[in-house]
Every structure is written in C-alpha cells, then in structure tokens.
Amino acid sequence: MGKKEEYLKRLSDGVVEMEEDDVAEACQEYLDAGYPAFDGIMEGLVDGMNRASQLYEEEEYFVTDVLLCSDAMYTGLDILRPHLPDEDGETKKKGVIGVVEGDTHDIGKNLVKIMLETAGFEMTDLGRDVPLQKFVDTAEEKNADMICMSTLMTTTMGGMETVIHMLEEAGLREQVKVLIGGGPISQKYADKIGADGYSANAVEAVKLAKRLLNIV
C-alpha cells in the first residue's frame, strides 16, 4: 500500500472511529505530502462516512454515533476544502436536494449533498419532509439543473412520481434532471416513474449527476 493509500485509509478510519483530532492531523499531513484535496475528501472522509452509514443500517451504530462520525468528517472537510481547485462560479451546475414529504430520514441525503458540493455543484438543501411543490418552485426559482430526492420509506415513494408530474405541468421537465435514491428505491422504480437516474449511494450519486449533466 502506497503512502497516499495509507493516508486515505487513516482518514476513512478516523471518521468511522469518530476521532476528530486524528482526522485533522491526518488531513494536514496528507496536504503537506502534496496529495490532492479532492481525493482526500472522496476516498478518505466520504469513504469513512459511507462505512459509518453502512454500520448504522446494520444497526451496529446508533444515530449518535453517526453524528459523531459526521463531526469528524466535517473537521476534515474544513481543512481540505480550501485546497480544492476553484471552479468558476458561472459554470457551476445547480441542484435542489431534499427528503420527500412524510419522511424525516436525512443522513443519506446530507451525505449526497456534501459530496455534490465537494464535486463542484451548487446545492440548495430543502431539508427533510419537504412539501412536493417546494421541489418544483425552488428548481424554477434557482434555475436548477437537477432535483435530487430521497426517501427511506415505501409510503412516501409516490411523492417522487408526483414531483415529476408537477415538473411536466410547470413546463420544466425538459430542463431539470431528476435523480432519486434511498433504501426502497431501485433502478426499476426510477424507470417506472420516469426519473433520469437512480443511485444506491453518495459516491454513485456524484458520478450519475456528472454523467447526466455532461460534466467531464
């Protein structure tokens, strides 16, 4: 394992183990060694957060643990983010993200937002339990390129399809890509309701968004 991989593993482990001080130290050493901030965020900090989310899903971790992991991740982000190459504000793609009405699970959504922002997207976060019309209104107001919706409940999945119909009625469907995700969601469901894409996790969400919006 090369030096860079060792740092990335240390960053990832630091997040999973909720070790803020170690994450901060590792981030600084990683930068001092001349490695790119973007990789440190994606393959280090975010990798750790994905592992923590997995442990939460497997009921090994509680919500309080996940929050401590995210504190460690944010500590690292604060150190690495200023070292990301500057993107021209004009070229930033804009997105609206939120958890659909009736659902308050937002750990996954928060992760996706952080990853998309890190990848250079300008995101408007509507939070959780978002009224469906708000997705459409905000997308129009912000002139958004995409809407990202998530839910962990089968009872609220239908709201995603409703938003797509609302976009059609508002004449916005052509200009806004719709990305969906969450526990009960699948590619099959995305195809069924006419969404542009589905991603199983935060890392895939970034790849998908870039692909749909033709960002190299």
UniProtKB/TrEMBL annotation:
Signal peptide: none
CDD domains hit by this protein: corrinoid_protein_B12-BD
Segments crossing the lipid bilayer: none
InterPro entries linked to this entry: Cbl-bd_cap, Cobalamin-bd, Cobalamin-bd_sf, Met_Synthase/Corrinoid, Meth_synthase_dom
Keyword terms of this UniProt record: Cobalt, Metal-binding, Methyltransferase, Transferase
GO terms classed as biological process: homocysteine metabolic process; methylation; tetrahydrofolate metabolic process
The protein, known as: Methyltransferase cognate corrinoid proteins
